[in-house]
Design a protein that fits this description.
alpha/beta; 2 domains; 11 strands; disordered N terminus; Rossmann fold
């Protein structure tokens, strides 16, 4: 019998769960379009969200429409482009700051010649943010970093964040942490205990926010982190979500029969 099966009724508080996408819900790939999304993932996340009364959201560097494509027909609350974009639980999509859109477009135009010279690089231009992936050319890390630094120079409201084989440019005031805090002020997240699961340095702001709100950050894999807990791999994340859903479902059944 598993530890989850043995847990006492009401073993966990009311939770709000937030997860990264790439490297957390799905394995990383050589390119953003190269990920393998299990057919069962959307169904599993729908079940988890249902058991949590919809208090489940994805905080990702991808754009909202990109996540929708991979999880269709499931529609979740999502913070995209590292918090620059946000769709609330009620379905309302907040307007991206026009200044951030224009700044991101300028940064992307500046980086385009480098990508044309080195086609193994991948430029990901988003609404309000830019990512330069060098996973297929790790020897170009310093070149990419310097190019992005030059591109962001003179745009005071933007900053760079280094991830796994990627350098991201985003508005300084927008992070996964600010997105998590915004969700936590709204139903159905309000009053719950936040858990944020991620795998990269770009998730650190989310770990800190969750823990400052009384919850916990869970870091997937190795590396320095502010998260208080760790988890081994993507499969373990799926198992955790399944297990938490099982506990919540069992607690609900217990309340209905006692």
């Amino acid at each position: 019998m598993s530890q989850i099966d043995q847990a006492e009724p009401h073993a966990i508080p009311r939770l709000a769960i937030f997860t990264d996408f790439d490297g957390t819900l799905v394995e990383l790939a050589e390119t953003p379009d190269g990920i393998d999304v299990p057919v069962s993932l959307a169904h599993q996340l729908e079940r988890t969200a249902r058991e949590l009364d919809s208090a489940f959201a994805v905080l990702t560097g991808r754009e909202i429409e990109d996540i929708d494509k991979y999880l269709a027909p499931l529609t979740l609350p999502i913070a995209g482009a590292h918090g620059t974009q946000r769709r609330r639980a009620d379905g309302f999509v907040e307007t991206v700051d026009p200044a951030a859109i224009l700044a991101a477009e300028e940064i992307a135009r500046t980086i385009e010649p480098l990508v044309m010279t080195h086609p193994e690089l991948v430029l990901e231009a988003k609404e309000g943010a830019v990512a330069l992936h060098y996973r297929q050319a790790p020897e170009l890390e310093d070149v990419c970093r310097h190019a992005m630094e030059e591109a962001v120079n003179g745009i005071p409201d933007f900053t760079l964040v280094a991830g796994k084989m990627v350098i991201e440019a985003r508005p300084r005031s927008m992070t996964k942490g600010t997105a998590l805090r915004a969700f936590m002020q709204e139903e159905p997240f309000l009053g719950r205990l936040p858990i944020f699961i991620g795998d990269d340095t770009t998730d650190e702001d989310g770990f800190i926010a969750a823990q400052e709100l009384g919850g916990v950050g869970i870091k997937l894999g190795e590396g320095e982190t502010s998260a208080r807990m760790r988890i081994a791999n993507v499969a373990s994340v799926h198992a955790l979500l399944q297990g938490l859903g099982d506990i919540v479902a069992r607690d609900r059944e217990y309340e209905q029969t006692h």
